[in-house]
Design a protein that fits this description.
This protein is mainly β. It has one domain. The protein is 4% helix and 56% strand. It is built from one helix and twelve strands; from the N terminus they run H-E-E-E-E-E-E-E-E-E-E-E-E. Strands 2-3-4-5-11-9-8-7 form an eight-stranded antiparallel β-barrel. It starts with a helix and ends with a strand. The relative contact order is 0.23.
């Protein structure tokens, strides 16, 4: 996964489940509860985001949908798109560096609550409150395998 992360550069085409996206920004983050475990977010046109966490062997791809309709902080269970999601974590994200893109347009510090779907392990919701702007950045996503993501040469 780290090799894939290194290959993602500005304007590179990333194929995710056979659909192509052009990388606009890439940043590295840690959380308050795990400051030594970094992860990467790659941002694409259309408010799409790819999250890669090598230490957790965890990848998800989704879309920033603004707000899913719950006030922050959200409850232990939420309903979205006709499905029930249960809370799995709540933390605080901190950007430690960015490779490309604008630091103003990349999420910086974010309070977030993550949820997993109770009837589909591949669906994921991350409810985010961007501290700098006090705006929402909720992500509706699908959990992926490493072979779902490729760099187009």
């Amino acid at each position: 996964m780290e090799d894939l992360i290194k290959k993602i550069s500005e304007k590179v085409i990333v194929s995710i489940k056979d659909k192509e996206y052009v990388a606009k920004a890439k940043a590295y983050y840690v959380t308050q509860s795990s400051p030594k475990k970094w992860y990467v977010k790659v941002f694409f046109e259309g408010l799409y985001v790819l999250v890669l966490s090598p230490s957790d062997n965890f990848i998800y791809f989704g879309k920033d949908i603004g707000s899913i309709g719950y006030d922050y902080p959200t409850p232990k269970r939420i309903e979205f798109n006709g499905r029930i999601f249960k809370k799995i974590t709540e933390d605080y994200q901190i950007m430690i560096k960015y490779d490309f893109g604008s630091p103003i347009n990349i999420e910086g510090e974010v309070k977030f609550i993550d949820y997993e779907c109770i009837d589909n392990d591949n669906l994921f919701v991350s409810v985010g409150l961007i501290v700098r702007t006090n705006s929402r950045a909720d992500i509706y996503a699908e959990i992926l395998n490493l072979n779902d993501v490729r760099i187009k040469l």
